Amino acid sequence: MTFQFFLGTGFREQEVMFCSWKNADFKGKVVAVRSKPELGFRPKDKEERSVPVPDSLIAALANRKKESTSMFIFAGPDGKPNGHFLRVLQKLALRAGLNCGECITKQGKSCATQAMCREWGLHKFRKTFATMHSEAGVPPSTIQKWLGHSDLATTLRYLATADLRSERTRQQVNATFSGLKIEGAA
Ligand SMILES: [Zn+2]
Predict the structure, then answer these.
(1) From ligand 1's centre to the CA of 12, what distance in Å?
(2) What residues pack around ion ligand 1 (CB closer than 5 A)?
(3) In the chain, what is the straight-line distance between the N-terminal and C-terminal CA atoms, in Å?
């Protein structure tokens, strides 16, 4: 559920850490990033924002709230902001057999057997959030607001990488070579 929240909101790690129940609007189905200076959390002006989230995520949050004893949506075991999201994600990826198997540390440890695959970072959910909204037709200027980017160029850089793999690009590339018979393809 934590990582579904990362995906559904596109929030940065700190923004998830400091997201409190007060920031979730169950009726309007939006989750807000708000500064909490008393806790040392200060996003920049542009980064304070509200992000609409899918009905399914709002429903899951409502259920989670019933069990929660902390002001934070994803608190650590002590009720304080949770700083272990990356470690948890990397353990899950290893257990699920989803590591790439090609990352090696200077000490010679491999992601084939260790929870340390670089393919599994928290930022990837943010990029996927942007890509999925873009492919569903949300305009880049709207995605920019949801991501809390101060300039559109940053958002467009996010989307450019994703566009390489989009269905639209696929159709264009196949159309370009539609007359070419590739040996060994059939
Ligand atoms: Zn890896």
Answers:
(1) 22
(2) 99-100, 103, 111, 117
(3) 42
User: Residue 49: its pLDDT value, please?
Assistant: 95
Four-CA torsion 16, 21, 24, 27, nearest 10 degrees = 160
User: In CATH, what number does 1-82 get?
Assistant: 1.10.443.10
* Whether pLDDT at 45 is above 80: no
Higher pLDDT, 170 or 161: 170
CA 116 – ligand 1 centroid, Å = 7
- The amino acid that residue 145 corresponds to is K
| Per-domain boundaries in the chain | 1-82, 84-121, 123-177
Q: What is the rounded average pLDDT of the residues 132-156?
A: 94
The Å distance, Cα 123 to ligand 1 centre, comes to: 15
Q: How far is CA 2 from CA 5, 86, 171, in A?
A: 5, 11, 35
